[in-house]
TrEMBL record:
Stated family: Belongs to the ABC transporter superfamily.
Signal sequence interval, chain numbering: none
Keyword list, A-Z: ATP-binding, Nucleotide-binding, Transport
GO MF term (any one): ATP hydrolysis activity
Protein name per the record: ABC transporter domain-containing protein
Residues in ABC transporter domain copies: 5-233
Gene3D superfamilies, per the entry: P-loop containing nucleotide triphosphate hydrolases (3.40.50.300)
UniProt keyword ATP-binding present: yes
Transport listed as a keyword: yes
InterPro entries for the chain: AAA+_ATPase, ABC_transporter-like_ATP-bd, ABC_transporter-like_CS, P-loop_NTPase
Pfam families: ABC_tran
Length: 242
């Protein structure tokens, strides 16, 4: 089986206590992997380690079968990402921000930019500067920037933050389309468990820096168990249902 992401005993210590403790993670090529866990569980830290923004204390990371060292960077050309609070050139338009991003990514299909802005729901904003965008519009632009160069892998940290229900639905449909039409592999974290149930193929549950389980949504459906019930039981234990 082809895995686009694998980690082995991945650990990150801040001061003495491990924030990420011996995580063994496997994400299959072409799937949507939903990353669930409470605030502070370590989801963002793991995503940053996959992108080499944070260096592991110990353990190994493999992306597309290649080991990732502290100095690795060429593999990032095939990855689109949205981590925490995205930064833009505030005095420029969305289109120009995408142009700059494509320039340093070495992506030259300029005709694709307007299509991507349309896909994420940023329409009729040609002259509007990013500094005048709402939170939801900024989040849409961040997603556009992550997908504009047609990466093989998307790493999205809470991409539906700040979106209204219609925006959440549009992003959900977008991610499924990217998987189906472009074969993208998507690692996505979210606090909205029901959204993960709609789109994810596999769920990874992280708590206090430890990966409790990876489980296929097909397996959960076969057990006739909702993702929400499963998640609550894994995090808080069966006493919640007494």
């Amino acid at each position: 089986m082809d895995y686009i992401i694998q980690t082995h005993q991945l650990t990150k210590c801040f001061v003495v206590k491990p924030e990420i403790n011996k995580v063994n993670m496997r994400i299959k090529q072409g799937e949507i992997y939903g990353f669930l866990g409470p605030n502070g569980a370590g989801k963002t830290t793991i995503m940053k380690m996959l992108l080499n923004l944070v260096k592991p204390t110990s353990g190994e990371i493999y992306i597309q079968g290649q080991p990732i060292a502290a100095s690795s960077y060429k593999y990032l050309k095939n990855i689109g990402s949205l981590i925490e609070h995205p930064i833009f050139y505030e005095e420029l338009t969305a289109y120009t921000n995408l142009q700059i991003h494509c320039a340093y990514m070495g992506y030259e299909d300029q005709k694709h930019l307007m299509k991507v802005l349309d896909i994420v729901g940023l329409r009729n904003i040609e002259g509007k500067k990013v500094k005048d965008f709402s939170l939801g519009m900024r989040q849409r632009l961040a997603i556009a920037r992550a997908i504009v160069a047609k990466p093989k892998l998307l790493i999205l940290d809470e991409p539906i933050n700040g979106l209204d229900p219609m925006g959440i639905k549009e992003v959900r449909e977008l991610l499924v389309m990217l998987k189906q039409q472009y074969g993208m592999t998507i690692l996505i974290s979210s606090h909205i468990v029901t959204e993960m149930e709609f789109i994810a193929d596999t769920i990874g549950v992280l708590n206090q820096g430890e990966l409790l389980e990876e489980i296929s949504m097909d397996v959960l459906r076969g057990k006739q168990q909702s993702l929400e019930d499963y998640y609550i039981k894994r995090i808080y234990g069966g006493e919640q249902f007494v």
